[in-house]
Amino acid sequence: MIQYVHMFSEGDRDQKDLLGGKGANLAEMVKLGLPVPPGFTITTEACRAYLSEGRVPPEVRVEVTQRLRDVEDLIGRTLGDSEEPLLLSVRSGAKFSMPGMMDTVLNVGLNDDTVHSLASFAGDERFAWDSYRRLIQMFGKTVLDVDSDKFSEVLDRHKEEAGVAADVDLTADHLKQIVAEYKQIVLDETGNPFPQTPRRQVDLAIEAVFRSWNTERAQLYRRRERIADDLGTAVNVQAMVFGNLGETSGTGVCFTRDPSSGHSGVYGDYLPNAQGEDVVAGIRNTLALTDLEDQDPEAYKELRAAMRRLETHYRDLCDIEFTIERGTLWMLQTRVGKRTAGAAFRIATQLVDEALITMDEALERVTGEQLGQLLFPQFDREAERTLIATGMGASPGAAVGAVAFDNASAVARQAEGTSVILVRRETSPEDLPGMIAAAGVLTARGGKTSHAAVVARGMGKCAVVGAEDLVVDGAKKEIRVGEHVIREGDTLAIDGKTGEVFLGDVHVIDSPVMTYISEGMEAATAIADDSETTELIEAVDRVLRHADERRRLKVRANADNGEDAKRARDRGAEGIGLCRTEHQFLGERRQQIERVVLADSDEDREAALAELLPAQIEDFVDLLTAMDGLPTTIRLIDPPLHEFLPDLTDLMVEVALADERGESGPEVERTRALRDAVRSIHESNPMLGLRGVRLGLKIPGLFGLQIRAIAEALVRLREDGKDPQPEIMVPLIGSNRELVIVRAQAEQIIAEVAEAHNQAIEIPIGCMIELPRAALTANRIAQTADFFSFGTNDLTQTTWGFSRDDVETAFFPKYLENGVLTISPFETLDALGVGELVQIGVDKGRATQPGLKTGVCGEHGGDPESIHFFHNAGLDYVSCSPFRVPVARLEGGRAVVLKDEVGTR
């Protein structure tokens, strides 16, 4: 028989699949003996059953009754009791943290009777009625689906009539009136009175949390974070402890280290006389955690001891929620905290130095995505700037964009290609679409643990919160600050490190970490303007060097010229995995290729090829010089034929207009002949047509030109004392016979060049595996190829039947929305489909040729998750854009120390 409900004392932190992250960590704190209000967890299995059957399993209700009585015994209070009523919190808790995405209900158990009992028990009438109005508001929105604005309007009106600015300044009489109006709203909106039976409140709240797993905002968050839809959420039911019992009570969120910078110390937010949701909602600006030491030294001391114990136990930065009820500390939640990219690297190396983790574990604690964030530009400190406000730097980075005040505006502007700064008084989970679309987030309220800060850090978005000088008027769509009025569409710049807000555009420069990557430690530390930046550079250096020591995968770069190759080499590339030679035929040379393709005779074609040869030799000399001593894979010309020819429609229009005007002469006849020639080879689907090896076999001498140029460049550089290491790669192979023909031609040309220069020349000749048939027949192709390079862009295209030029905008958004895809397969490798073909290609190729070198080129070579797949598949190297070389180096090392997690989300 399935057990759906577990007391906190029955679990531990390793049961996140069953108990969710929050429930597992609550159980762990109970094991550690920390002061946790008693409670129980309803498992993810129960949620999945609910989602499948459309109802909560009846066994859950029975088990909840049993566990609820255990809680009553432990706390000494009873749900619905007329003298000492037990109140409960009902919270979600999925395996993976989804801050603010699902529902919470506090103060469950209050009704028209128990509110008086609570007032008497607590000796505080205002507290009881404040708790009751919170329950109705939260329950109404979450469980009964009442528009939350209706409650907010009532609350705001009463504050205005009372002449107070904050909720805490309302009296018990004010709150009684508010409760009465809230209850009327529930009756008007639902047709039923607010439920008065405490146990019914519990059951409805549990079901609401299960239901919130599939809210639009939760689904959007899961799609973005690639969290599986079928995991479900657990529900944690816990005895309420009260932070709103006067000035000796309060609630807060703290971190064992600063999640923004990584520094050790006391970091967090505290609100006296408040409940937990007040802190993260940002509706009141919080106090610094250090202020608690002055207000309640004993509770502060106990909290600091608990923080140290949890960090030591988890061996990581911990994010902790706590409540103080009349001087008594209660621990409500802990988890390994989200952090900025810079903090991740600093904390990892700090913990190594403190002997809490090893360097391998430090490598596990950071990601390529985080390193990529540190490579982004930052504001030029010397640039002219107009500072208009300063808030808290909640998530580092430099963001410049047009102001947007709501989701619709942010999404629309981003779709137009405009960078956006989302500005809100404070954000809520409903603002997630706008936050995703924005380059940065700016709020007037909130602290480092507010919704805006937590979500932005998780996304790696620049964020400034709590900029109190800003008066944000969402209705008028304007910001007032001092003498300035900023309207929607105006430009703001925000610095997520310093918290500064600037009017207008601000020039950006390379980050110090990018300078370190490109120019070395000495150059980077020379431009670092503070010790924190120097520490960050040193932390990145330590982790990246360890990754280089641990990784098995070599990291190459995609580069088409010497400049790009040098840039890649400076960033740690160990060779070139893909030189796209077609890029060398753009501009003035396009007409020469046109002559080759449309030549009327062998003589004309050979003459055109001869004109191209010297330039091609210089191209390869340039590239091989930059990569001297390192393998340089040069792909023979690949793209569809139409890319080298005039547009057929333009030619047809030009001829038609000439005919209409009665024009004649050599130019008109040339255009007419060109139209006929282009029309004769026009293709409906050129990506599956005359390209790659097919083009090389159809047009004599085209591949030969490039092969000869490679060999001649090699000879010239050898004579200059260099060590060029070119590799020739044949694209779009589908049959071994194609490669046999090209290889024979190549070997003949190489032999001719070798004989002419009296040198021995050996150039490896391999091919791309980018068609499903090539992967499936790799055992045959390996008879001829010296190496394989998987072209996963085209392999994805041909496996899925997707046109990569069209699908991203045509229907991917709908596929992502419906969960058909969790991410574009052109961004992260489809491990189940395309990845299976890669594995087949590797295995079959090496079955024929055990020492066969295999690699991958294309953007998947720089994608962190894909790199882990390639490591596990046994590839020898990945190749990516020069910018992503450091990311690939890091992830190559992480792939060694991490277990395979591909497909877990």
Protein model, in words:
Residues 62-285, 298-343 form the Pyruvate phosphate dikinase AMP/ATP-binding domain. This protein folds into 6 domains: 69-239, Acyl-CoA Binding Protein, CATH 1.20.80.30; 250-339, ATP-grasp fold, B domain (D-amino Acid Aminotransferase, Chain A, domain 1, 2-Layer Sandwich); 342-371 and 513-545, no CATH class; 378-509, 3-Layer(bba) Sandwich (Glucose Oxidase, domain 1), CATH 3.50.30.10; 551-640 and 683-898, Alpha-Beta Barrel (TIM Barrel); 648-681, no CATH class. The strands form 7 sheets. Strands 14-24-23-16-17-18-19-15 form an 8-stranded mixed sheet. The protein is α/β, with parallel strands linked by helices. Helices cover 47% and strands 17% of the residues.
